[in-house]
């Protein structure tokens, strides 16, 4: 059975959080901070992993991610 994660990153450089979804949050963090990522989060590099929450289903992870993103507004 696969595990899905909602992860929260923080950039002290721009003082912002980023909420994402992945089956491998550590690998996503590497991508967010890599030179390959030139579009979405380059200006917020470096980002650090604040937390990740695991879920047994894809749908629960996506729903929770949306709820957290809406709290941010």
TrEMBL record:
Pfam families: GIY-YIG. It comes from the Bacteria. Residues 2-73 form the GIY-YIG domain. This is GIY-YIG nuclease family protein. It comes from Marivirga arenosa.
């Amino acid at each position: 059975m696969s595990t899905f994660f909602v992860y929260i990153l923080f950039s002290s450089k721009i003082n912002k959080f980023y909420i994402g979804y992945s089956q491998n949050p550590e690998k996503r963090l590497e991508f967010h901070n890599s030179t390959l990522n030139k579009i979405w989060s380059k200006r917020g590099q470096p980002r650090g992993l604040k937390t990740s929450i695991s879920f047994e289903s894809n749908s629960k992870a996506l729903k929770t991610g949306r709820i957290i993103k809406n709290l941010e507004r």
